[in-house]
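ugh ok so i messed up the first submission bc i forgot one of the chains. this is the corrected input, ALL of the components this time, i swear. 1124 residues overall. if the numbers dont match what u have on ur side tell me asap before i send this to the collaborators (the ones from the other lab, u know who)
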Amino acid sequence: MVDLKVKIDNLEIKNPVMTASGTSGFAEELMDFYDVSKLGAVLLKGTTLKNRDGNPYPRMAETASGMLNAVGLQNKGIDYFIENIYPKIKDYGTQLILNVNGSTVEEYIELTEKVNELENINAIELNISCPNVKEGGMAFGVSCVGAEAVTKAVRDVYKKTLIVKLSPNVTDIADIARSVEAQGADSVSLVNTFLGMAVDAEKRVPRLSTITGGLSGPAIKPIALRMVWQVYNAVKIPVIGLGGIMNAEDAIEFMLAGATAIQVGTAIFKDPFTPLKVVKGIEEYLEKHHISSASELTGALKWQ
Amino acid sequence: MVDLKVKIDNLEIKNPVMTASGTSGFAEELMDFYDVSKLGAVLLKGTTLKNRDGNPYPRMAETASGMLNAVGLQNKGIDYFIENIYPKIKDYGTQLILNVNGSTVEEYIELTEKVNELENINAIELNISCPNVKEGGMAFGVSCVGAEAVTKAVRDVYKKTLIVKLSPNVTDIADIARSVEAQGADSVSLVNTFLGMAVDAEKRVPRLSTITGGLSGPAIKPIALRMVWQVYNAVKIPVIGLGGIMNAEDAIEFMLAGATAIQVGTAIFKDPFTPLKVVKGIEEYLEKHHISSASELTGALKWQ
Amino acid sequence: MGKKAVQDFIVIENRALNSSNFYIKVKSEFKLPDLKPGQFVNIDIKDSSEVFLRRPFSIFEVNTSENTIAIIVKVLGRGSKKLTEVKVGDVCNIVFPLGKGFTIPQSDERILLIGGGSGVAPMLFLSKVCGLPPENLNLLLGARTGEDHVNVDEYKKYGNLYFTTEDGSLGEKGFVTQHSIFTSNLKAFDKIYACGPDAMMKAVAKEAKAANVFCEVSLENLMACGIGVCLCCIEPTIHGNKCVCSDGPVFNINELKW
Amino acid sequence: MGKKAVQDFIVIENRALNSSNFYIKVKSEFKLPDLKPGQFVNIDIKDSSEVFLRRPFSIFEVNTSENTIAIIVKVLGRGSKKLTEVKVGDVCNIVFPLGKGFTIPQSDERILLIGGGSGVAPMLFLSKVCGLPPENLNLLLGARTGEDHVNVDEYKKYGNLYFTTEDGSLGEKGFVTQHSIFTSNLKAFDKIYACGPDAMMKAVAKEAKAANVFCEVSLENLMACGIGVCLCCIEPTIHGNKCVCSDGPVFNINELKW
Ligand SMILES: Cc1cc2nc3c(=O)[nH]c(=O)nc-3n(C[C@H](O)[C@H](O)[C@H](O)COP(=O)(O)OP(=O)(O)OC[C@H]3O[C@@H](n4cnc5c(N)ncnc54)[C@H](O)[C@@H]3O)c2cc1C
Ligand SMILES: Cc1cc2nc3c(=O)[nH]c(=O)nc-3n(C[C@H](O)[C@H](O)[C@H](O)COP(=O)(O)OP(=O)(O)OC[C@H]3O[C@@H](n4cnc5c(N)ncnc54)[C@H](O)[C@@H]3O)c2cc1C
Ligand SMILES: Cc1cc2nc3c(=O)[nH]c(=O)nc-3n(C[C@H](O)[C@H](O)[C@H](O)COP(=O)(O)O)c2cc1C
Ligand SMILES: Cc1cc2nc3c(=O)[nH]c(=O)nc-3n(C[C@H](O)[C@H](O)[C@H](O)COP(=O)(O)O)c2cc1C
Ligand code: FES
Ligand code: FES
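and heres the new structure output, hopefully the right one now
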């Protein structure tokens, strides 16, 4: 029997597989297919202080081995979540991690204080990297100063595990990672989507209502993997890797490059069972290679 | 009859289709398939002052809808080029553009002075964005200061059309584009490859000898297209767009987003005829849509 | 749990209905759940270097004893083209059942079903299973030319069939909203259902609203997930943005911001 | 110009030679150019969501009157697997002819051809066309077990056949370099040719070098373009890095830095 457990700071997770925020709703939809308690964690939909309608339709465009989205953080706000959703999902038997988003540092603080009160939410993922909102969002994530400011403010009020989600749309992601580590982040997750664009050549219009949107899926995997490797070599806190993971082999590549845990995003759209299949595949890989615990994979890449 | 001619500064090219540097050798290999005089321009292999052996094997890894390379500017140096290659290719009947690379500003200057003397080379593409060399290369391309320094130095000695090739591995590519425009660049081409990585999960080793390498192909197209759009909206000089162009439809998307001309790179590996097919496809598109000249496509995207 | 499934089906039939529409029937080795008109399936397009996401198709026919589902596929782009190239015996991976169906009319109601293009599929399914006396059910199908109409002779037994074509080659000339059964007295119907191109559904909805007749339409917004997790397929409604895939694809027109 | 082509071929045969090797024959509607043993073709793997680049395969058989080319494909990963699923009648897009061939021996020379795995293909092609008297030609093929050996009975008429298997189930037990014909007197050969796994070719090269016998090997470095423009397939030689696709794939071992 192999040991699949891994730890993100004090957070124990039963296996290294999480769903990515914005790609698995509030886990309820996945429950139509299988019991999410088999997953390490579910990253809940990006939540803001107030209701957000998000961007106009069309919000998505298919690209080569990937897709662009311009959802723009549509959600009903934290109070609605606490009253109407949290009670339904809190006993799903997996770690629930809320993805929190603000347009100002104050919003992040106010939001975090509310999440502090939720007993069954043991970690938050601070999204400072959403490319699909005009105010805040990625603006914080693309400079060390911005990333530091949000992380510090939230760290001061948030007592449980603080994961900061990094934007890949930067010159030096290791720099940003070091900055948020210095401000007390317990972990970093990367990557969020890459800012991209799609054009309808026949109609001569952009394919997204917002012209540009966030690229995800296997297309971005090589860049995401490189960033995880760079960040793993730059910080001491655990790294959560994601970006184009479609199967266990991809997940293992991220772990070898330095990830302690991984998230499955867009692959869920192709097959909602993907996260579950990845758990199984990691287990089989460990058995086949006579490795006793998943945590041994982290950074186990051999080079030079 | 539609008019395919476009202009990059004073450089007249018979159609907007160029081959990308490093993906079409010195054009000789393409001549085994067809007459390159049918193309707008051929971007010659990245050339340095002295001979460079490049990186060790393995230098490439296939990825989802793309590939990583770690060639590392293998070439025999400018003097070898001038003596042994230039005489053979100078009358190919298309614009020949040399891609020049240095590790120091001085090297760029010395190299450029030599290229100045070559009558049938009417433009250079300044590569400040190669991710596959340790010294120089991308280092210049990821900061405005670096990009400015090289561009200014080369502009002072180079009299013909100066194209600067930008790195996509930056937070704000429009910023870099504005910097090189201010230093006298006649045009910018983008994008070079994205820094990426691939791992062999079974062997637990990197797939490239250099661990990381440059990602190209359709996978990167949405990001490249977005960058072309941003740069087009930031500068007045003509933009040359590339990154994942596989067919005429892709090429037209780049032109609509703001490119005056486009380059075909990795697609040549799949089919050496791709650049020729793109010329034909653009011609057909213009006819079908009753557009009289290719230059009308530039920035013709309709939005808001 | 287990309300929805991802399952391999085997293709047992694939034939051209006309130049651009194909009839594809797939069989499961498992018992099918209850499937309602208006619901859809999300199909993995295998072996395509160009298609990344699944493609949604309305359920057209269901045979619960044979465990088969049939769909009508109109060739539009890369994915639908590829899908129509499947051969008998091929495996077809499907996520289902997705979305909510139409409101089933009561047995004494008079209804009008309007289908355009591949939108005929859910209309035909609904006319077959709603259990109305044929005289109460009116099926109006629109297309560009007679050739674009797929053969629906079989459906004569479920109700009255009417056609429009833009060139007048079959049925009345013009759009569905110009057909006499539509223009004469819309209030004569208790319920109107429509599926087809956006422009057609909007035209229908406008008249139905004016006549104050119950009307449901089935939307075909672009989808990424099909299961309500991505929020890409949204349609603005009076209750805010709703997901076409999970809150729809069937909407009452009074809810829409058309 | 026109020295190389990108052409659609039609698959006219595809059969399993054993559990992991397939024989695939394709036909062109155009006249084939002259094709030499050691040259290769670069094949587009159609309809695969996982394969992006072409895959190179050595030419195994050529029929210039029928305009057919045959290759032997060993299933290794995604691309080779997919390729072996082609059906008679399928279109197969090929870039060819690529690379330089082996040095053809003179008619009075004694040669030893050594093939391992899918490396048998160019060896068999060479033995067929080099025009030597059969007594001068020795073909030594290595594999893990007897099952891994493809049937080469036909080639008996071109020379002497020898086999090795790691488990001793066919021919001599061990690696090719342990076979008696190899260990007895290497100097008896004027020329040695080898194609197969790197380790095998390196072992052969070492002995050939020691015995000072002419030896050519055919390399299978990973390729992106296959036509000499990308510089991905390089092999260090005494004259610097050379492209396996355009300077090779055949190299004299004295040139290599092995
Ligand atoms: C709930 C639902 C039910 C459907 N039922 C059917 C059905 O029964 N039969 C049928 O033939 N089709 C049906 N469709 C539409 C079908 O899913 C699309 O035609 C198909 O996805 C097109 O894929 P493609 O790869 O061929 O086109 P692509 O190559 O992806 O696109 C070609 C062009 O069409 C546009 N396009 C693609 N899909 C849509 C869309 N859904 N709406 C508007 N424009 C689009 C693209 O933007 C592009 O410009 C349904 C769609 C939905 C959402
Ligand atoms: C000049 C030349 C001639 C060849 N002739 C033949 C032939 O006649 N018959 C034949 O069966 N094969 C031949 N090959 C090898 C063949 O091209 C590869 O087996 C094939 O490309 C593997 O593709 P894949 O998609 O199945 O493997 P992938 O899924 O791409 O790879 C599977 C694994 O194998 C490794 N791998 C893939 N290709 C190679 C390679 N070329 N060398 C070493 N490791 C590799 C990958 O790194 C990966 O770990 C030849 C190669 C060259 C360069
Ligand atoms: C439709 C969609 C919505 C997303 N919404 C969010 C979000 O609300 N918050 C967030 O941090 N990331 C969001 N993401 C980004 C994903 O969580 C993930 O970082 C990204 O998609 C890369 O992973 P993948 O390639 O596995 O999808 C979203 C992605 C998609 C495709
Ligand atoms: C094998 C290879 C070698 C390359 N060499 C160079 C080079 O020498 N100089 C340069 O500016 N770009 C080089 N590039 C980058 C390409 O010119 C191009 O910018 C990039 O590949 C993106 O375009 P594509 O997706 O069409 O290939 C190289 C790319 C590849 C794949
Ligand atoms: S398609 Fe994802 S929510 Fe509807
Ligand atoms: S594979 Fe491109 S140079 Fe050999």
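quick check: The radius of gyration of chain B is 18 Å. that seems consistent at least. The domain at 6-56+70-194+215-297 of chain B is CATH 3.20.20.70 (TIM Barrel).
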